[in-house]
């Protein structure tokens, strides 16, 4: 089986509106996308940045559940959804909404805190200030403190201090960083390169601006995950940037998260990566992507119950992220809880029947449960939805092999090989067909050319036919995943 990308990574999709009602946590909030009220429509990046900043501030409060940006962005414009509906769909008690207007050297931000279930307004404020970094950060901190007060949450000393943080005194640096983040979250190769240029401009405007260094490192690692740059180049570019970010701000959660990704994906230093992710979550308990990253790392380390707990928390904080939900199905399959994996996969497909990876996960769950006909249908649908995805095609070969359809499995497998498909997945199909030497030939090739493919193999049930062979433990040792 292959690993879904992290929440928010390339290929991220969100569920449509109209999802099931979730249990409501009384100390919970969704920050809806702030409306861009500026005459200049190009200022959209700025209102998105304000929304992200407020979410980031609130996520520092340990007693507060804050819905991730991935899920709340689904409600941009929200003409078709009432606040009570949004509250039920996200499982939150409160909603914050507002608007942002830039005009010349002035900035106006309006914010309203609303009880989602009753649509009753609890608090409202209008901030009319100079377009200056200091005033902007003060407004964001004031909003966060007002929300905590409305919920009667007692902030710890460290939380109160963190809400006062002023990462830059340069509005130019802040503005450039906001533009960079707006491009970064579009998650295409082209947008990431453009973001890198803007992050560098932000650093030029303020060489002490920690978030810009963290963003720069994250953009290079995003290119690595897309296969657009080599691991060596990613490490060379990201390592000094993330070290500088942490030097400038040792309490910047995003920098620790990026450090964790660098240690894990760039350098294969899993134990250090775990410490970095956990530090990020200490500083920002409501950081959904941090929980997802830690959960995926723990999967890779074979610590499946711990991984499942982190991935459940990621879904609680990001309930409309299909990638976050897919990780739950994946960890259930790896844990050999196939009925749970099937349930999670079917839930994903209820939210979005055209999500190819959901069909892929369903196929594996059904195949390992012995429901071969349905498994073949699921993998076939995944391949139809994404013909370029050779993982799904390899999954189809696997399902045929499990069903005893040797000729069909080999025919599909030859097509996967001809198109340069995933080496590990090819190997596991050969294992199911009893061609063990051929399987290890492909695993050795994977080790030599793309060792990241072997991340989950030690806990993958698909590898069971190979485990008794002494070459399997030797392979795990060489791959550094034993």
Brief digest:
By secondary structure, the protein is α/β, with parallel strands linked by helices. The chain is 59% helix and 9% strand.
Q: How does this structure look, described?
A:
- The chain has 482 residues and is of the alpha/beta class.
- Helix content is 59%, strand content 9%.
- It has 22 helices and 6 strands.
- The protein has helices at 44-58, 69-72, 83-90, 133-150, 157-163, 171-184, 189-205, 210-225, 231-248, 253-266, 270-283, 288-300, 304-317, 322-334, 338-351, 356-368, 372-385, 390-402, 406-418, 423-432, 436-449, 470-479; strands at residues 25-31, 35-36, 65-66, 92-103, 106-115, 120-130.
- Strands 1, 2, 3, 4, 5 and 6 form a 6-stranded mixed sheet that branches.
- Strand 5 and strand 6 (120-130) form a beta hairpin.
- Helix 14 (322-334) runs parallel beside helix 16 (356-368).
- The protein starts with 24 loop residues before the first strand and ends with a helix.
- Report strand %: 5-15%
The percent of residues in helical segments reads: 55-70%
What is the residue-mean pLDDT, rounded to a whole number?
91
- Poorly predicted runs are 5-11
Structural class call reads alpha/beta
Compressed to H and E, one letter per element, the order equals EEHEHHEEEHHHHHHHHHHHHHHHHHHH
**What's the shape?**
globular
End-to-end separation = 18 Å
Instruction: Tell me the number of helical segments per DSSP (H or I, 4 or more residues long).
Output: 22
Number of strands: 6
How large, in whole angstroms, is the Cα Rg? 23 Å
Largest sheet: 6 strands, mixed
């Amino acid at each position: 089986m292959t690993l879904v990308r992290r929440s928010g990574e390339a290929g991220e999709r969100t569920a449509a509106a109209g999802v099931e009602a979730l249990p409501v946590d009384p100390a919970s909030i969704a920050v809806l996308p702030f409306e861009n009220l500026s005459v200049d429509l190009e200022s959209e990046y700025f209102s998105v940045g304000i929304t992200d900043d407020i979410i980031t501030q609130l996520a520092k409060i340990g007693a507060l559940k804050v819905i991730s940006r991935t899920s709340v962005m689904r409600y941009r414009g929200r003409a078709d959804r009432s606040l009570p509906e949004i509250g039920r769909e996200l499982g939150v008690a409160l909603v914050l909404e507002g608007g942002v207007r830039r005009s010349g050297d002035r900035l106006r931000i309006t914010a309203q805190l609303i009880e989602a279930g009753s649509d009753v307004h609890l608090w409202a404020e209008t901030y009319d200030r100079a377009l200056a970094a200091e005033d902007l950060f003060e407004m964001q901190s004031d909003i966060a403190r007002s929300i905590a007060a409305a919920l009667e949450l007692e902030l710890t000393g460290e939380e109160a201090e963190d809400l006062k943080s002023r990462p830059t005194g340069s509005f130019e640096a802040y503005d450039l960083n906001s533009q960079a983040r707006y491009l970064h979250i579009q998650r295409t190769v082209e947008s990431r390169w453009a973001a890198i240029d803007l992050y560098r401009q932000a650093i030029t405007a303020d060489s002490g601006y920690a978030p810009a260094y963290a963003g720069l490192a994250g953009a290079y690692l995003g290119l690595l995950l897309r296969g657009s740059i080599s691991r060596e180049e990613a490490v060379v570019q990201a390592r000094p940037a993330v070290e500088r970010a942490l030097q400038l701000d040792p309490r910047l959660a995003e920098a620790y998260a990026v450090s964790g990704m660098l240690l894990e994906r760039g350098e294969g230093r899993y134990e250090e990566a775990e410490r970095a992710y956990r530090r990020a979550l200490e500083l920002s308990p409501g950081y959904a992507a941090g929980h997802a990253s830690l959960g995926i790392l723990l999967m890779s380390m074979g610590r499946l119950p711990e991984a499942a707990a982190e991935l459940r928390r990621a879904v609680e904080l990001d309930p409309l992220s299909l990638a976050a939900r897919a990780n739950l199905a994946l960890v259930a399959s790896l844990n050999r809880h196939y009925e749970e994996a099937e349930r999670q996969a079917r839930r994903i497909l209820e939210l979005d029947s055209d999500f190819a990876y959901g069909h892929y996960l369903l196929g594996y769950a059904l195949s390992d449960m012995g429901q071969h006909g349905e498994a073949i249908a699921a993998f076939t649908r995944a391949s139809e939805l994404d013909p370029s995805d050779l993982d799904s095609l390899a999954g189809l070969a696997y399902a045929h092999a499990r069903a005893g359809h040797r000729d069909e499995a080999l025919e599909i497998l030859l097509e996967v090989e001809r198109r340069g498909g995933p080496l590990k997945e090819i190997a596991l199909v050969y294992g199911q067909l009893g061609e063990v030497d051929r399987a290890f030939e492909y695993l050795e090739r994977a080790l030599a050319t793309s060792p990241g493919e072997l991340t989950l193999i030690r806990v993958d049930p698909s590898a069971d036919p190979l485990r008794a062979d002494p070459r399997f433990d030797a392979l795990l040792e060489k791959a550094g995943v034993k």
